[in-house]
Amino acid sequence: MVDPEDLITRWYRVHGNPNSCTVEEVLQNHVGMVEALAVSMILMPRTRIVEDYVILDMPGRNRGSEDEVSLRDTLAGRRKIKMDLQDFVDSFNWIESPYLFASGPLTEDEKRDDKYDALCADIEKAICEQMKDSWAAWLNWTYKDRAFQVFILSPEETGSTYGVGFRETR
């Protein structure tokens, strides 16, 4: 596991700001309370029960009663294509981590820098490791009578980048 504090230090050094390298300095100088609250929603995600299945309810996805009706219709429609119901539900229960955040504009040098690409990949993986651990604790606390497997998806599995997901074990 990569040390998140080390990644933060490396990130700010790459961007020419060696004075904002500790977690405390980053939080105090760059992160407001609203941003921290938004991140907490990623680490302790909303979920809901649809037809006795736990479904991930991340920001911007599956919201409101219309969406719940749509999910119920989709679950019913899944039966027509003869897809395994658990596999179908699992397709809702993962997310690619970089798409949750604003990445900021990349300079031309950053776009060509292999070290920068490696640092971004390390950060994506570290975010997923943090999400995996917090999701596992959150799901087990929220649904004490159910069991879950929480996992990290590789770029090969998602087709582009790291992700995190869960599966209820029945």
Key words describing this protein structure:
single chain; 3-stranded antiparallel beta sheet; 170 residues; alpha+beta
Descriptive report:
With 170 residues, the chain is an alpha+beta fold. It has one domain (46-169). Helices cover 52% and strands 15% of the residues. It is built from eight helices and five strands. It has helices at 4-14, 23-30, 33-43, 64-78, 85-90, 108-112, 114-142, 155-158; strands spanning 47-50, 53-56, 94-96, 147-153, 163-169. A hairpin with a 2-residue loop joins strand 1 and strand 2. Helix 1 runs antiparallel to helix 7 (114-142). It is elongated and about 55 Å long. The model is unreliable at 62-66 (pLDDT under 50).
SSE layout and pairing:
Elements: H1 4-14, H2 23-30, H3 33-43, E1 47-50, E2 53-56, H4 64-78, H5 85-90, E3 94-96, H6 108-112, H7 114-142, E4 147-153, H8 155-158, E5 163-169
Antiparallel strand pairs: 1-2, 3-5, 4-5
Helix pairs in contact: 1-7
